[in-house]
Amino acid sequence: MTLLISTTPALARDIDGKAISAQVLDEVREEVLNLARQHIYPALAVLLVGDDPASEVYVRNKLLRAKDVGIRSLEYRLAENASQHQVLELIAQLNADVTVNGILVQLPLPGRIDEAAVIHAIDPIKDVDGFHRENVGGLVQGMEVLTPCTPSGCMRLLQETCGDVSGLHAVVIGRSNIVGKPMATLLLQAHCSVSVVHSRSVDAPALCRLADIVVAAVGRPGLIDASWLKPGAVVIDVGINRITDESGSHLVGDVDYASARTVASAITPVPGGVGPMTIAYLLKNTLIASQMQHEAQVHEHTSASHLMVS
Ligand code: NAP
């Protein structure tokens, strides 16, 4: 008998963000129908200031996906030279509008506008990006709050790939407010041991080699290669970087995919990994926001009735 032994090392399997995000969108679509039976119609307001081409594409995709799942979307545009006062006024108007459940301000805003002031002007119960300090604090304390979309999407990819991640060691590379920090918090909540690596970390590759799960959110094309990974690690690449090489202009992640997949057991491709999950979780958050607002209204109504009786 001849025994055939392959000399090619097994390559990591792809974590299919397109397929998993389609499942999430199906769940959202079904829940939108359930809510419609109760005469609840979730609506998302998207505000774009200026005409940054990348932001235009992101906003268009968000609006299209919202329509796909039956969520009403409202697009608001302000000119590049709009004042901070105008932005805040519009947010106040949307906060007060009971038919609007989610408010998303497309970032980055033009440099003159104070991003933090705008984010914190959004009513936390409508903050579908989960960036308001009240939601950030609630997340850290393990409360049920609106949670940033990209880290939520990454957690779903991990659940679908690893099942229970309890007890695993996760290394998050990057500590931004929108990805790295909430990601580390969610992993901790899922009972991982978590390390956060950043630009000041001493020997980041050595720290990363200890990880069962690596989440890269750095913004440096191909920074993480096979030499950063423990054999069998699961790799989630959040990075979206546009590069131009001899084959033209294209998007790559923070992970050197070709190199990393020779060592990892599973990896998200870029594009087609984390990207589609972010929009899916934005729509899931819109749904959660409208349910939370409905419950708050019911509670208010019940409390008012009790007051009238007593
Ligand atoms: P960011 O705010 O620029 O943060 C980058 C982080 O990486 C910082 O914490 C920085 O450390 C750290 N860092 C930089 N160089 C490093 C190095 N050599 N070694 C270790 N850490 C290093 O970026 P972000 O907003 O989190 O975004 C990160 C990437 O994810 C970008 O490519 C972005 O486009 C992408 N992204 C994708 C999605 C999606 O939907 N897929 C969503 C959001 C962002 P310091 O804190 O020390 O400076």
Automatic annotation (TrEMBL):
Pathway: One-carbon metabolism; tetrahydrofolate interconversion. CDD domains: NAD_bind_m-THF_DH_Cyclohyd. One of its GO terms (biological process) is tetrahydrofolate interconversion. GO terms for molecular function: methenyltetrahydrofolate cyclohydrolase activity; methylenetetrahydrofolate dehydrogenase (NADP+) activity. Residues 148-293 form the Tetrahydrofolate dehydrogenase/cyclohydrolase NAD(P)-binding domain. The lineage of its organism: Bacteria, Pseudomonadati, Pseudomonadota, Gammaproteobacteria, Pseudomonadales. InterPro entries: Aminoacid_DH-like_N_sf (IPR046346), NAD(P)-bd_dom_sf (IPR036291), THF_DH/CycHdrlase (IPR000672), THF_DH/CycHdrlase_cat_dom (IPR020630), THF_DH/CycHdrlase_CS (IPR020867), THF_DH/CycHdrlase_NAD-bd_dom (IPR020631). Catalyzes the oxidation of 5,10-methylenetetrahydrofolate to 5,10-methenyltetrahydrofolate and then the hydrolysis of 5,10-methenyltetrahydrofolate to 10-formyltetrahydrofolate. It catalyses: (6R)-5,10-methenyltetrahydrofolate + H2O = (6R)-10-formyltetrahydrofolate + H(+); (6R)-5,10-methylene-5,6,7,8-tetrahydrofolate + NADP(+) = (6R)-5,10-methenyltetrahydrofolate + NADPH. Homodimer. Keywords: Amino-acid biosynthesis, Histidine biosynthesis, Hydrolase, Methionine biosynthesis, Multifunctional enzyme, NADP, One-carbon metabolism, Oxidoreductase, Purine biosynthesis. This is Bifunctional protein FolD. GO terms for cellular component: cytosol. Its EC number is 1.5.1.5, 3.5.4.9. NADP(+) binds at residues 174-176, 240. It comes from the Bacteria. Residues 15-129 form the Tetrahydrofolate dehydrogenase/cyclohydrolase catalytic domain. Belongs to the tetrahydrofolate dehydrogenase/cyclohydrolase family.
